[in-house]
Amino acid sequence: MEQKKKSRQQVYTLLVQVGRKDGDGLPPDATGGALMIYASGVDEAEAVRETVAILKQAELAPLDVVGYGTLSERIEQGHEIDDEERDLMQRALEENSVVVAQMTPFFGGEESTDNAALLH
């Protein structure tokens, strides 16, 4: 009997800090920003690689990526996840894509090491 490989796509919540780059679309006086992203992948490493590649194509300069896991992992961690967030996660899964849920620009030293505040 042939065993099926488990290669099911999952959606991972990623928080990506970006620096400045010409054409990045951030406000002119911003020093960088943070993006809350839902990305599909067979594992978190693949989701991160795909996200970084897409952000670079979009003229952004990814500096750091923090993974918060899948929907079930976030629920286990006690995160409250509203219907809008779940819908965006489902969209990322169905489209096998990277969905930017939120982009927060930083201004003059606002960058915080506690970017978890962007998570609901």
Describe this structure in words.
The protein has one domain. It is 28% helix and 34% strand. The protein has 3 helices and 4 strands. It has a 4-stranded antiparallel β-sheet. The longest helix has 14 residues, at 44-57. The relative contact order is 0.26.
How is the secondary structure organized here?
Layout: E1 10-19, E2 30-41, H1 44-57, E3 61-69, H2 71-76, H3 83-95, E4 98-107
Antiparallel strand pairs: 1-2, 1-3, 2-4
Features:
four-stranded antiparallel β-sheet; globular; 3 helices; 28% helix; 4 strands; 120 residues; single chain; alpha+beta
Give a quick summary of the entry.
The protein has 120 residues and is an alpha+beta fold. The chain is built from 3 helices and 4 strands.
Shape: globular
Strand content: 25-35%
Strands of the biggest beta sheet: in what spatial order?
3-1-2-4
Cα gyration radius (Å): 15 Å
Mean pLDDT: 87
How far is the N terminus from the C terminus? 45 Å
Order of SSEs: EEHEHHE
Protein structure class? alpha+beta
List low-pLDDT spans: none
Helix content: 25-40%
- The domain tally reads 1
How large is the count of helical segments? 3
Largest sheet: 4 strands, antiparallel
Number of strands: 4
